[in-house]
Design a protein that fits this description.
- By secondary structure, this protein is of the alpha/beta class.
- Helices cover about 30% and strands about 15% of the residues.
- The protein has 25 helices and 30 strands.
- Helix 5 links the parallel strand 1 and strand 2.
- Helix 3 crosses helix 15, helix 7 crosses helix 17 and helix 19 packs across helix 22.
- Bound molecules: beta-D-glucopyranose (2 copies).
- The site of one beta-D-glucopyranose (BGC) has 10 residues, from loops.
């Protein structure tokens, strides 16, 4: 009767038989084919493609020795808690919408800061501001207004390559580069250093490591993954969890020098065919052996929290998958910590919203990440517990898990953040010791792909030209999740302890008596002996990094032209390529004498020079030792392990400097259709509508498309003409005559889904120049079909603009959603309407992220 076990255990662990019924009903609503009898089921959702057979999954030992005293403490706390306090433990709000004062009123169990959420809204908030805020949150949670025994909150942060959200922190290489280092001992050091830098600002919980096993490199989060090989992810999972949390069973475990780790995103995030938050359709055994490979090891190493993926498996959102969240994670793996959701991911479960999702609790989600809607979610969840929709037993189970971790983390004993041992030791951020570890990691992560005639290592006593837009750019070295979510909008000055790759080369060459010259565009005064060109991808994060194929910078050959120009001048060229994934760079490989994949090395750019150059006496300082942890593609359409065929360079490839690195000329035809070159975020730019979009005008005389965006509405009230901003006819002038309402809009033949973009706080942005101020109300809207849409008033913004000057406006997508637009079906992403007079020029109509938001809609 082994197959009955999971469900009986569920009842014992607090998830009762009636939960199962509710869960089955929820799945039925999804259209899954369900099994007839689930009282003694063989599997979760048997018969459906999303069936989970717990017995197929490995069994693992409980991670920590049984601790009856701890369990007694948990029970005692639980017994004294009010229902409000319990529900509060399940909800985590973001510091951009939640204040310490709120915590006095709402007994939430935790807070987070998203990638763009900083104390005081200041991207460069000093460490003291973080500590101050952490202290306030803690004290607020301990205010006596909540029941007899207050429960301290804790704060989670994405310290995913160092304490990267915080000004002055050491920024380690992104995980893909660490994978190339193949060095678990180094991972442990990085974990421990990161933990100290998080502790210094008073926090004790990080959302990492990412254990994704990537099967398609088009995925925008590929760089967050150590490897496409499960074996390496497994080794690193263990090392990183031990580094962050300390060794279980010792007094170092979760002491004041360590932080709670959160392996993520459970499970299958890397197997969604290159689509972030997409659907993983691999078989259950593949999921187990590849995507899930790191989790059992991480749990055995003591991981206390696990983040549930945005993605789906076989069409079912992970946040509502009881088979994987409960039957496998809890019943099979004996995971005793808690699961936390991803950023409003529960809102994507069919039938749920950001403000309500009992389905997720039922499936086994213990804590909602509810950055924006925590208040309504709290009220709804409380009501659902009171009505019995969420069983008390399940509530208690979730709270017990959270309390257990809080106790293990010594949250009660350690007291307010400011009083903890490392708090305020801001010299730990970017300390020489931590930077030395990061620099070592950079050295170990560099993978040498080509080295004609043993060009590398270079002699430092030469004339060295350093070119390319990545040469002196710490933001480009660091990539996404660095000070800002997308890693954009920052400059070298924002990294007080960092060094660019150029600085490292300059120091090395000058110290040896050579000459180094920086010239981004490659122009030089004296012909150099060698040129090092540093270039690659611009920073991105999450779905904004999803690409349709693996061509590097399609449509923009400026780096390639630079390489060729230098080569044509008889200068040997070394490419240092910065990227978050392997990309098809055959033309660049051909145009370089040596080619180094440097990934996203982080703030310690000098690590690159350490390996590129010999010592002044000619001896080799550091050998290249990085080896690919992802295969390098032979064509832009070879996406990863999902695509068959021999890669150009297989996993494990990487030249030693002593080896023969000559590479025969590679084919340069990409074989890509020109449609592969479009930017999906653009609706109108450079005088052209984005792919699939067209201009149209509408008034009561009718609606009609306007070819090239030049024409008039049927009544003649609204005219569109071409004007110049930067280039000839790159913009449109819209002129309303003021004789009745008319609309200028951009529409498509098929709707697009902008829910992810809305959740990620993106904006509809454009450049505009008011030439005649509005004489009446003006609205900017979006459309979702006949009499469906949402619009916001923008006449005040237009009136405030200086006449005749180009300006930029960012209107958060959330404004349109709040005004009634369905973000799932956007037929018209831009519609400007007025009945009055107005003339304005407009261009660069697009979706933009990380915008400070110069427009506020009230909702
Ligand atoms: C936040 C990130 C979050 C993302 C969700 C951003 O606005 O800053 O932390 O991961 O939204 O897609
Ligand atoms: C990301 C997570 C991250 C969270 C909080 C989400 O959008 O998917 O990896 O931990 O935001 O910033």
């Amino acid at each position: 009767m082994g197959f009955c076990r999971p469900i009986m255990r569920r009842a014992k662990s607090g998830r009762s038989g009636s939960d199962v019924t509710a869960r089955v009903a929820a799945l039925a609503a999804l259209g899954a084919i369900l099994f007839a009898s689930f009282a003694c089921a063989r599997a979760y959702a048997a018969g459906s493609p999303a069936a989970i057979h717990p017995d197929l999954w490995p069994q693992i030992r409980p991670q920590l020795p049984a601790d009856p005293a701890l369990e007694r403490q948990v029970n005692a706390l639980l017994a004294g808690m009010t229902l409000e306090q319990k529900v509060g433990q399940l909800i985590q709000g973001d510091i951009s919408t939640l204040t310490p004062a709120d915590l006095r009123q709402y007994p939430l169990g935790s807070v987070l800061n998203g990638g763009n959420s900083k104390p005081g809204g200041n991207t460069l908030a000093p460490p003291s501001a973080w500590l101050g805020l952490a202290n306030q949150f803690y004290l607020a949670s301990m205010s006596s207004s909540h029941g007899s025994r207050p429960i301290p909150e804790f704060w989670g942060i994405d310290a995913v390559h160092g304490n990267n959200d915080v000004y002055g922190a050491t920024v380690f290489p992104q995980n893909i580069g660490l994978g190339a280092a193949h060095d678990p001992a180094l991972m442990r050091l990085i974990g421990a250093a990161t933990a100290e830098e998080v502790r210094a600002i008073g926090l004790d919980w990080t959302f990492g490591p990412t254990l994704a096993v990537v099967s398609d490199d088009r995925w925008g989060r590929s760089y967050e993954s150590y490897s496409q090989s499960p074996a390496l992810v497994r080794e690193y999972a263990r090392a990183m969890v031990l580094g962050l949390q300390g060794e279980p069973g010792t007094r170092h475990f979760l002491d004041a020098y360590h932080v709670i780790a959160t392996p993520k995103h459970y499970v299958g995030d890397g197997g969604t065919r290159g689509v972030d938050q997409g659907d993983n359709t691999e078989s259950e055994t593949y999921l187990r052996d590849f995507d899930a490979a790191g989790y059992p090891v991480a749990i055995e190493a003591g991981a206390q929290s696990i983040m549930v993926s945005f993605s789906s498996w076989q069409g079912i959102k992970m946040a509502a998958n009881p088979g994987l969240l409960t039957a496998v994670l809890v019943d099979r793996w004996h995971f005793e910590g808690f699961t936390v959701g991803d950023w409003n991911a529960h809102g994507q479960v069919p039938g749920c919203t950001d403000a309500s999702c009992p389905e997720a609790v039922d499936a086994g989600l213990d804590m909602f990440m509810a950055p924006t809607d925590w208040k309504r979610l709290y009220a709804n969840t409380l009501a659902q517990v009171r009505s019995g929709q969420i069983p008390r037993s399940r509530l208690d189970d979730a709270v017990r898990r959270i309390l257990r971790v809080k106790l293990r983390d010594r949250l009660f004993a350690e007291g307010p953040p400011a009083s903890r041992p490392l708090a305020g030791h801001f010299d730990l951020l970017g300390s020489p010791q931590h930077r030395a570890i990061a620099r070592r990691a950079v050295r170990e992560s560099l993978v040498l792909l080509k080295n004609d005639e043993h060009l590398l290592p270079l002699k430092p006593r030469e004339r060295v030209l350093v070119a390319g837009d990545g040469a002196d750019s710490i933001p480009m070295q660091c990539g996404g999740w660095t000070l800002t979510w997308q890693g954009s909008g920052t400059s070298n000055e924002d990294f007080p302890h960092g060094e660019s790759i150029w600085r490292g080369i300059e120091q090395t060459v000058r110290a040896a008596g050579g000459e180094a010259e920086l010239s981004a565009d490659g122009a030089f005064k004296h012909k150099p002996d060698v040129a090092i060109v540093v270039y690659g991808e611009s920073p991105y994060a999450e779905f904004q990094g999803d690409v349709p194929n693996l061509a590097f910078n399609p449509g923009n050959d400026s780096d390639l032209e630079l390489l060729r120009r230098l080569r044509a001048a008889g200068i040997p060229v070394v490419s240092v390529f910065l990227s978050g994934r392997p990309l098809w760079v055959n033309p660049q490989l051909n145009a370089s004498n040596a080619f180094v994949a440097a990934w996203l090395p982080g703030s310690e750019g000098e690590g690159v020079a350490d390996v590129l150059f010999r010592k002044p006496d000619g001896a080799i300082g550091y050998d290249f030792r990085g080896r690919l942890s992802f295969a390098w593609p032979r064509s832009p359409l070879q996406f990863g392990t999902d695509t068959p065929g021999q890669p150009l360079f297989a996993v494990g490839y990487g030249l030693r400097d002593a080896s023969n690195g000559n590479l025969p000329k590679l084919p340069e035809a990409s074989g890509l259709p020109s449609a592969a070159l479009v930017d999906a975020n653009v609706f109108f730019a450079s005088g052209r509508p984005g792919s699939g979009w067209h201009w149209a005008v509408a008034d009561d005389a009718g609606a009609s498309p306007v070819a090239r965006g030049i024409g008039a509405s049927d009544s003649g009230r609204l005219t569109l003409t071409a004007v110049d901003k930067v280039r000839q006819e790159d913009s449109r002038r819209l002129r309303w005559s003021g004789t009745g309402p008319s609309t200028a809009e951009i529409s498509g033949a098929t709707p697009i889904d902008l829910t992810r973009q809305t959740n990620a706080q993106m904006a509809l942005s454009f450049d505009y120049r008011v030439e005649q101020a509005p004489s009446a109300a003006v609205t900017l809207g979006m459309g979702c079909g006949a009499s469906c849409g949402g619009a916001v008033p923008i006449a005040p913004a237009l009136r405030a603009a200086t006449l005749g000057q180009w300006q930029h406006l960012d209107v958060p997508l959330a404004c349109f959603a709040a005004a009634g637009q369905s973000m799932r079906r956007v037929w018209t992403p831009f519609a400007l309407q007025t009945a009055g007079r107005l003339t304005l020029a407009i261009t660069n109509i697009r979706l933009e992220s990380g915008t400070a938001g110069n427009f506020h809609c009230s909702h």
